[in-house]
Amino acid sequence: MVLRRLSASITVLFVVSVLVFAATSLAPGDAATARLSQQGGATREQVEALRHTLGLDAPLPQRYLAWLAHAVRGDLGVSYAQGREVSGLIAERAVNSLLLGGVAVAVLIPLALLLGIWSGLRADRRSDRVITASSLTLVSIPEFVTGTLLVLCFATGLGWLPAVSVLSAGESPADRPSVLVLPVLTLVSACLAQNVRLLRAGTVQAASSDAVEAARLSGVPESRVVLRWILPAAIVPSIPLMARYVSYLLGGTLVAESLFGYPGVAAALVDASAARDAPVVLAVALIATCVTVTLNLLADVLSAVFNPVRGSGV
């Protein structure tokens, strides 16, 4: 299964690279025009000279094959807009995005497990109704609205947290943890509701299974029943969804980074798209695809490990 998925992943990466390369190359304008327009404009001869320097006047298939030949060796090229190595540029932003996404994942997973299983074990009670209503409210509010409300409350209103992630030169978000709080809350609120609802449904179904009823009738302590039978059965259906959200968080979160001015990969993607900076756009797209494919493969493996069919006896 793993070998089949790996071969399929290589195909996915190839297709994504072709589509992204074609989209960035066929879009109106190019990197030479965008770069010179930021410098106050230029003559047609200057634009053509820069296009030749960047290799943009070569046929599209030739440019793609040249990029692919370097990419398979780990060379992602040079940014058209900044003249820097793409790998170094992405590495700087990726550290910030991974920090933001990692903190969000560290908050999301235990909180979703706690609320989902707690709600499922107390189905139709007051705490379950409160958690369910809160989940429905969160899932119906767009992410940018949640972020804006958090800014109005905790930044503008109370003044407890910064509204934007402004960092000094050479400063990391880890040096100022306060700039992570509002983006993390925005991300977790957007991802939490669906996971809680799915875990609750899995817990309710598992709690009414024959194996759980037999265990309780046999006098097995409730804590062991939850850990041995209910928890694995509740987790299995939610693993693919959780993997999707984790890949979303670790791959760079456009809305949160744009809303709070966070210097991450998603913000770099927006800037590169506006500048028609194909090497940067390709690098970000491939990295995000790799993260998604890897986490989906891991989700399949974990689903097999936690499959409760492997032991249903008391």
Automatic annotation (TrEMBL):
It is a multi-pass membrane protein. Coiled coil: none annotated. It comes from the Bacteria. The keyword Transmembrane helix applies. Gene3D superfamilies: MetI-like (1.10.3720.10). The chain crosses the membrane at residues 98-118, 130-160, 180-199, 249-270, 282-306. This is ABC transmembrane type-1 domain-containing protein. It comes from Streptomyces nanshensis.
